[in-house]
Amino acid sequence: MQDSIPMTVLSSEALRQNPMPDATAIPAILSAAGDAPRASAAATPMPISAESTDEQLMQALREGSEEAFTALFHRYKQPIFGFFSRRLAESARAEELTQETFIALFRAAKRYEPRASFRSYLYAIAFRILRADRRKSIFRAAFLGSPKATESASTPSHTEDSLWVRRALAKLDATDREIVMLREYQQLSYAEIAAIVEIPLNTVRSRLFRARSALRDLLSPPPAAAPRTAEQTNSAEKGPRQ
Questions:
Q1: Domain tally for the chain?
Q2: What is the pLDDT of residue 36?
């Protein structure tokens, strides 16, 4: 059995490479607000390098290293932006929520405990921010009406294939859709998805199988009509007997 949907189908919607906010600006803002992690005077700064693991960088950030935050930001800014841009209609809003995710990460650094992978920890923050934004959108739509979405001139038009994929994903159950997107787009493990969506691991497996099957059916072209036989054609041309 095929483990995943071909990525040539799901990746037909290319990521929009929009400029992201500069990482060094976020610690400066939070430091001025008194939210930045404080480095201990007795602590020896952890060395930072390109080979540092996510968990090592987060531990350094916990000890007050803005260099570690910058490294994490540049390592994950595009994946997190991709997470939001595939779920939101407006690229600008995806950028805003990406920045909110890293601000939340920075503020939570002192409380970080490496119980799970850093990647699942970060996506869990992004998922909570996305759900909060959706609740706000529902509230605004209920009381203020839904504003019409406008296409920005800087936003590239979607190809026919990407729209086809978007429409198919939109027809899935909300949780099934989130599971299959986390697996196929973000390439998260079953355990990471279970932690983010907060459902049992076996439930992730079963719902992912169901979502993939439904998505394959939705993405399959309709069967072509069988060609007429010569007998059927002659019968149609003669018309009904009197």
A1: 1
A2: 61
